[in-house]
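Dock 2'-deoxycytidine-5'-monophosphate; give full complex structure.
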Amino acid sequence: MISVPIVTVDGPSGAGKGTLSAALASKLGYRYLDSGALYRLLALASERHKVALDNQHALVVLAAHLDICFEYNAAEGRTQILLEGEDVSRQLRTESVAIMASELAVHVGVRAALVERQRLFALAPGLVADGRDMGTVVFPEARLKIYLTASAEERAARRYKQLLEKGDNVSLRAVRLQVDERDQRDTERQVAPLRPADDAIQIDTSEMSADAVLLQLLEITVVKGLLT
Ligand code: DC
């Protein structure tokens, strides 16, 4: 039984969960769990160790032995994510890793192995957990559940802008296709599909700035008594 306060933020890729959850965690003074990073780390590890994405048994073994570390680097003001001692923070953010993560996330055994690791993040003074099934499966007892959405068109446009800023040479059409494909796999899988928890507060961010969404989230946390 987890006793610290937990805020879950679920939703499809590109809805703004990452930035907003990290900002909310910092305002509340809570820890932050980027659960997608765990699926991405497993994807990277599977590539390195030549484990096929449909080999559930080998993936479960890999997940159980995943050597990872989230380390805050004060000098750079960012969290470094290490896989087997190597900083893979940048590699993790690529589209190819995201697609592999979505593919291996369909396996029930893989999810069970990663759920245990995710629950270990629930430590004092509290946790903001971002993902697809935080409110429905991993932390059903959360004090506050948020479900962030935005139209597929808007999410693809945001993602496209980010990739251009990183210097990637991509087309908006290709990004839109990737967003649609990942949405479909994440919402239609048999285990823990992406969906809002029954008690989640849903926010459509299509027409909102990141600042406006954060403000709304902070207002909700005040109402819920998590922020005074
Ligand atoms: O949030 P993200 O884009 O980093 O997630 C990458 C993939 O990992 C996502 O497409 C599906 C999977 N994932 C999941 O199945 N459950 C989560 N809680 C988080 C991510």
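Observed: Residues 6-220 form a domain with the Rossmann fold fold (CATH 3.40.50.300).
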